[in-house]
Design a protein that fits this description.
- It is built from two helices and four strands.
- By secondary structure, it is α+β, with helices and mostly antiparallel strands.
- Strands 1, 2, 3 and 4 form a four-stranded mixed beta sheet that branches.
- Strand 2 and strand 3 form a beta hairpin.
- The longest helix is centred in the middle third of the chain and has 18 residues.
- The chain starts with 7 loop residues before the first strand and ends with a helix.
- The relative contact order is 0.25.
Length: about 70
């Protein structure tokens, strides 16, 4: 028997600002959210909302993947 788990991190950001490296910041915040999911016990989905000032807020409670995938 093989067990596979996944930790998923995502981020929600407002529209890009002129001169902002939006894609790079988006990936960095999503990567950080993934590591939060791993640190919280793995097999988690974490979404982070980032405002224009870079303030972060978790917008979804940690869920295990089966719960996150349920309708």
């Amino acid at each position: 028997r093989i067990t596979v788990t996944a930790s998923i991190g995502g981020t929600v950001m407002g529209p890009p600002v002129e001169g902002d490296n939006f894609q790079k910041r988006l990936i960095e915040y999503a990567d950080a959210a993934m590591y939060v999911a791993k640190r919280n016990g793995r097999d988690q989905v974490i979404l982070i909302d980032v405002d224009a000032d870079g303030n972060q807020q978790q917008i979804s409670p940690p869920k295990t993947l089966p719960q996150a995938a349920a309708p």
